[in-house]
UniProtKB/TrEMBL annotation:
This is Sugar phosphate isomerase/epimerase. It holds the Pfam family AP_endonuc_2. It comes from the Bacteria. The keyword Acyltransferase does not apply. The lineage of its organism: Bacteria, Pseudomonadati, Bacteroidota, Cytophagia, Cytophagales. It comes from Pontibacter virosus.
Length: 318
């Protein structure tokens, strides 16, 4: 295992995915220069600031992981997340009426501050906007994100009814660009989170390829859910090579060795994250979020998030 310095020397070339062949991981080029002063290079070979190191150290948790308990005890759950070591949380489920689990953005930000936590990204329901193009709801998300101090307004999911074919994905891309303009005007960044359905093929392309091609790189970034890349039989390294700098966030969760449709704690499954973090490819990653949609049988959820945090912190980012 390479030490922490070696990992940071590859930052800006990070990748993730399944166990890769030697051909797949041998993807560096003479153009990908490393700056000696910082040990970090971006897609153009220019040095990346030390702030990127700090944001990766602030490992985040997507709070959907704790959806079974957070609604009944938001303050207690946030305290336990902080005690597990996390310094960043990604929200979900916001509504103008109920805020974040009964707390409106200002109150929720105060709760995070009291626990030495920040929230750099939030998942917001874009279903209505994807169907109608009405930006009113998007504007409420922007207001909430600004008040909470977030950097990213993230699209978490697209309903099947709005993604039925290549033309539908092109229409979605157009709406994402428009929403991205609104976010940018408020000093926020729009991002898109994948599952595996985006990799469905339409002739010689996929829905995901359409979104990447048809959206403006300055307006729309991507949150790469690496588990879903693997479930979709995709090589994230190839995407990171083809679209350097666009994958500013990662969702990291492991795949159960016996039942791939289930998650397991990071480091316990079939995704060789140690090899992947060492054999890195340019992605532009700034934030890493642990997320699980289910836990190992009988495991306490807070034990689970602590185990995953420790593995990312002590093994992958060592």
């Amino acid at each position: 295992m390479k030490n922490r310095r070696s990992f940071l020397q590859q930052l800006g070339m990070l990748s993730a995915g399944f166990v890769l062949t030697p051909a797949a991981i041998s993807c560096s080029s003479p153009e990908q220069r490393t700056d000696e002063a910082t040990g970090i290079a971006d897609a153009s070979g220019e040095a990346v600031t030390g702030n990127t190191r700090a944001t990766l150290d602030a490992i985040g948790l997507q709070l959907y992981t704790l959806r079974e308990v957070i609604g009944s005890d938001v303050k207690g759950v946030i305290g336990k997340v902080a005690r597990a070591g996390y310094r960043d949380v990604e929200t979900y489920g916001y509504s103008k009426e109920n805020g974040f689990w009964g707390l409106h953005p200002k109150a929720f930000r105060e709760l995070l501050n009291a626990n030495n936590l920040t929230s750099s990204s939030g998942h917001y329901d874009f279903g209505q906007y994807a169907a109608t193009g009405n930006t009113d709801q998007v504007k409420t998300y922007i207001d909430a994100g600004r008040e909470l101090g977030q950097d990213y307004i993230t699209v978490p999911y697209l309903g099947e009814e709005v993604r039925k074919g290549a033309d539908a994905y092109k229409a979605i891309a157009e709406k994402l660009n428009k929403a991205g303009e609104l976010c940018q005007a408020s000093n926020l960044q729009l991002a898109y989170h994948n599952h595996d359905f985006e990799f469905q093929r339409f002739g010689d392309t996929t829905g995901y390829d359409i979104l990447l091609k048809e959206t403006d790189p300055e307006l729309v970034k991507f949150e790469a859910d690496l588990y879903w890349f693997v479930r979709g039989a995709q090589d994230p390294l190839a995407y990171f090579r083809q679209h350097p700098g666009r994958f500013v966030m990662w969702h990291v969760k492991d795949m159960d060795k016996n039942t791939p449709i289930l998650n397991t704690e990071i480091g316990s499954g079939s995704i060789n994250y140690a090899t992947i973090f060492e054999q890195a490819q340019q992605s532009g990653v700034e934030r890493i979020f642990v997320e699980q949609e289910n836990f190992t049988a009988s495991m306490d959820p807070f034990e689970s998030i602590k185990q995953s945090y420790d593995y990312v912190k002590e093994t992958l980012l060592r």
